[in-house]
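Example (one chain per record):
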Amino acid sequence: MKRGLQGRFLRIPSDPEPFDAFVPAPLPPNPPIQFDSELDQLRDRAHLAIGRLDSISTLLLDPSFFLYLYIRNEAVLSSQIEGTQSSLSDLLLHESEELPGVPLDDVQQVSRYVAALNHGLARLHDGFPLSIRLLCEIHDVLLATGRGSERMPVELRTSQNWIGGTRPGNAFFVPPPAHEVLPSLGLLEKLLHNDPV
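Predicted structure:
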């Protein structure tokens, strides 16, 4: 099934230049996703990959060590989007109380990503639902100290952000404006919990 752009670009008047922010289409998708042969093949490949991962995990002496490293690698990759220079080995050195080869602030930021992810996983494990409230809690853990801690954690953003570039006008990607964040997240939450819209 070929689907076009799953949202729209909203022109935002701004000084010194206007820019286009992407606003996702309302959820659930309309028309609903129809599984055609291409999507069936992708779903089958995903099931096979999960089966392979499950099989490999039975061969590991300690699957929790694999998860430990996976979480940290994901934290490194996610924090690099924000411009940190830390590597997985830098993080592991920091956690073993050795000196990493990059600025300590960068490694501490990656460490916050690990703490935030672990917090979210623990809450889900305890039965807390995936929700806007949980996302805000995770954000609070992420911004508890260090870079960004002054930016009102636990609250949805009230200003425009962007990825790449020096301003929204030359950014690689501009997410929804602040007034579109709560409605978009609310629809996502309803879809996750199969609530009628």
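Caption: The longest helix spans residues 37-59.
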